[in-house]
Amino acid sequence: MISRLIEAGAHGYCLKGIEVSVLVLALRSVAAGALWWDATGTAEIRAAFGANQSTASKPKPLLANPLTRRQQEILALIAAGKTNQEIGVLLHITAGTVRVHVHAILQKVEIRDRTQAAVLAIQKQLVAADLLAK
Predict the structure, then answer these.
(1) Distances (CA, A) of 30 to 25, 36, 67
(2) What is the SS3 assignment for 11?
(3) Exposure b/e, 8-32, CB count within 10 A at least 16 = b
(4) Which of 5, 78, 82, 125 has the fewest Cβ atoms surrounding its Cβ within 10 A?
(5) Torsion of CA 90, 92, 96, 97, to 10 degrees
């Protein structure tokens, strides 16, 4: 079913019974250009691709910097310890928009949480130096 959804051009999939707040985040993420697949869909996608690749294959390397300038700004503020609300105030956007950007950042760099994002931002220099200095 997942492969048929992808072939049809779907950018996401949620199971019935999803929490309203998660559904809203999923819709905003897809509207912002990100992909959103729930845990079941993700597992099926990984299984399908895993069946086509050898188990010894290496993980895909990160691009030099896959983040947009706005995502870099948000990541710099995450690295500075700011909350979504504080980031929203500083950038004149809503906390919901910040959440969408944070979700897109986490997906692009293939990590699970804000702490990993902050560490990765500094280690891999994903944020321009002028943004970290602010």
Answers:
(1) 9, 6, 17
(2) coil
(3) eeeeebbeeeeeeeeeebbebbbee
(4) 125
(5) -100
In DSSP notation, 22-90 reads HHHHHHHHHHTT--EE-HHHHHHHHHHHHHHS-TTPPPPPPPS----HHHHHHHHHHHTT--HHHHHHH
- Return d(Cα 97, Cα 106) in angstroms, integer: 14
C-alpha span between 55 and 110 (Å, rounded): 19
Distance CA 126, CA 119 (A): 10
pLDDT at 55: 46
Report pLDDT digits (tens) over 50-85. Answer: 765 544 455 545 446 788 889 888 988 888 889 999
In sequence order, what are the residues at sequence separation of 6 or more whose Cβ sits closer than 8 angstroms to the Cβ of residue 119? none
Whether the Cβ atoms of residue 73 and residue 97 lie closer than 8 Å to each other? no
Separation between Cα atoms, residue 37 and residue 28, nearest integer Å: 13
Residue 88: which residues within 8 A CB-CB, separation 6 or more? 94, 95, 97, 98
Q: What is the pLDDT of residues 27-50, one digit of tens each?
A: 877 777 777 777 666 676 677 767
